Amino acid sequence: MLLNETVAKLRELKLYAMVQVLEQQLSSFSKNNLSLEDAIGVMVDAEWASRKNNRQRELIRRASYAIAGASLEDIDYRPARKLDKALIARLGSGNYLKENRDITILGATGAGKSFLSCALGMAANRQYLTVRYTRMPELLHDLALARSESAYLRTLKQYKQVKLLIIDDWLLYAINEDQAKDLLEIIEARHKRASTILCSQTGVKGWHGFIGNSTIADAICDRLAHNSYEILIQGESMRKLQGIHSEG
Question: Under a CB-based contact definition with an 8 Å cutoff, are residues 192 and 100 in contact?
Answer without folding.
Answer: yes
